[in-house]
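Quick illustration, no need to memorize.
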Amino acid sequence: MSFNKSRAADREYVIHTDAGHAWVAVPLKTLVALACTRNISPYSYIKGKTAYLEEDCDFGVFVKAFELTFSKKPAFRYAKHYDGLSPIRSCERFTMEKCLRAVMQKD
């Protein structure tokens, strides 16, 4: 797993919203490097090599791990808002096992 700490610290993480919820998109390898995959709930989603962390709990887990690692808050920007349901809701539910398997797969 290749992880660029500087790139992770300086990137803008994208927030996706729909009429009832929000998620922040985070590369799976970033979650593994921050050692917070064990604390992510199945209310978050995985698509490819990206996790979509739900706003109520998992978003905070990521922010806390990020701050402990980089001594600063992550930067965010908003993506398109969906008036109905976001396509994120049809992605696979997050599990630590799915995350680790996806990270280990070659690109």
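The mean pLDDT is 92.
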